């Protein structure tokens, strides 16, 4: 059957019950450039510190998960440099366990079907396994064959196929512009794939009910990958161990490095798994905001597109007529446009990108009054090279390229551990922003695709 595939996994993770030390998330308030630089050095040089929100500039919060073992030395370092800090999450594992117990309790009740009572049973208000996602996509392809087809675009290190769902009215021929959407590139950001699944639901099940959605499906081709990093995602679901639940990277094979231990002492060998996929794209690869240490959360990989997940994106986007590229992350409530590798660096169509992003953020805000910042990643967060949205704009020459950092905002305590009752509100409001961008895509002139984008520095 061309519209479905099995997505069979070669590696499965048994649920691991964690019974180790305590992890705490600290909220830091650097107030000087020197304090920010200290934290940046800690992030690059101490792989045992898990930065949920990275240091960027004085006055912006930093969130760090620290084990009890590392805690005293870390706090001493903060005190020595007068960095204000407070507890954001006292016991990360306790929160993980409580959330899992709540989810399990709901699943033991009467099985909920699709929340809009459509033909395909699927509860959009829950976090799902990769297998559940595959089954949902296949069910849509079988139930709505005139609109939906499903295909793998690559295979991960652990043998999982990366699923893409194409949504368009197949009866309407001719050349159509494409919109790429991906979620779950970072394993721990569970609300991202859940939000993207909501978009799929809207496009398919509301086609006969909503004139604007019908236009989107008739005149555009949607290429949607709800889980770009299925290996990392399934690994993050496999344990209540905070270091596993908060796993960020893919699950590439271990890479070993030798580290000096002191004069006249033999070096030690350390082996670690995983590449940060959003540092692995060919856009100023390895220049800023990434690491060559395979044990780092922001390990960039051996070379650009070294990973099957990023190579799959590159190959697919380059083979198709993609006018818009949307990638979804969490957290911080920011809507970003290129370029993120250097502050005050933009494409020559900055005004169009910024006005579109501002309109999208305004539409998002109209639902629940959620506030989003708008700007480049470098201007709003911190410079980082090798990102997918920058590559899409700078190398693949996609017209509209945006990265969403979804809920929660930085002042909210739960960070990556967003409760399930936040899925639908997050998805609903974000869908309004996506509709604005889709409408702009429809307005593009026929020669807008693949126009080379120059960069300039705004001094």
TrEMBL record:
<keyword id="KW-0121">Carboxypeptidase</keyword>
<keyword id="KW-0645">Protease</keyword>
<protein>
    <recommendedName>
        <fullName>Zinc carboxypeptidase A 1</fullName>
    </recommendedName>
</protein>
<feature type="domain" description="Peptidase M14">
    <location>
        <begin position="126"/>
        <end position="441"/>
    </location>
</feature>
<keyword id="KW-0378">Hydrolase</keyword>
<dbReference type="GO" id="GO:0006508">
    <property type="term" value="P:proteolysis"/>
</dbReference>
<keyword id="KW-1015">Disulfide bond</keyword>
<dbReference type="InterPro" id="IPR036990">
    <property type="entry name" value="M14A-like_propep"/>
</dbReference>
<dbReference type="Pfam" id="PF02244">
    <property type="entry name" value="Propep_M14"/>
</dbReference>
<keyword id="KW-0862">Zinc</keyword>
<comment type="similarity">
    <text>Belongs to the peptidase M14 family.</text>
</comment>
<dbReference type="GO" id="GO:0004181">
    <property type="term" value="F:metallocarboxypeptidase activity"/>
</dbReference>
<keyword id="KW-0732">Signal</keyword>
<dbReference type="Pfam" id="PF00246">
    <property type="entry name" value="Peptidase_M14"/>
</dbReference>
<dbReference type="GO" id="GO:0005615">
    <property type="term" value="C:extracellular space"/>
</dbReference>
<keyword id="KW-0479">Metal-binding</keyword>
<dbReference type="InterPro" id="IPR057247">
    <property type="entry name" value="CARBOXYPEPT_ZN_2"/>
</dbReference>
<keyword id="KW-0482">Metalloprotease</keyword>
<feature type="active site" description="Proton donor/acceptor">
    <location>
        <position position="405"/>
    </location>
</feature>
<dbReference type="GO" id="GO:0008270">
    <property type="term" value="F:zinc ion binding"/>
</dbReference>
<dbReference type="InterPro" id="IPR000834">
    <property type="entry name" value="Peptidase_M14"/>
</dbReference>
<dbReference type="InterPro" id="IPR003146">
    <property type="entry name" value="M14A_act_pep"/>
</dbReference>
